[in-house]
Hints:
mainly alpha, 2 domains, 72% helix
Amino acid sequence: ETLKAAMSRARDLLGTCASLEDVKTSLAALEEASLWVLDPGTSSRQPQEEVEVLTTKLARFQALAKNAPEVEGLRRKDKKAEAEQLRMDLASQLIAPNDDERRRLAQTFRELCTELDGRCARARTRRRTSSCGLEPPEETSAASDEASLSGWLSSLIGSGVRAASAG
């Protein structure tokens, strides 16, 4: 019911000359409502993983996202595949946390996703500016690797949020 009302409000605002702030507020309410909608066909049968398992998965996802020393030996393709799987697992398990520990993990997961989105946006801006010839590329090889890694992780997280919201 709340999701339907938020969707209706967002549609109404998009059809009018509403202020940007009104649209942002409406979209935030829509996103919040969509986080609490669970698919009764699958979610009710899917058991919640133990907090320790989720903590381990989140730590591994964070290591992949930050290209930590423990994942340096992996090929980029393997990192991407593992991060994609971990992101989907974490998103499905942390979409509607039911206790304080899971809420803390969900908050950490959201913060990591926000950080990755910001790094990806900055890297995209640097690439655009550099490709236009406005400023010389000053990235080192390590910075370039990190930017490209965060780029695919950011796009991965963005598609996962949409998939989780739709699911």
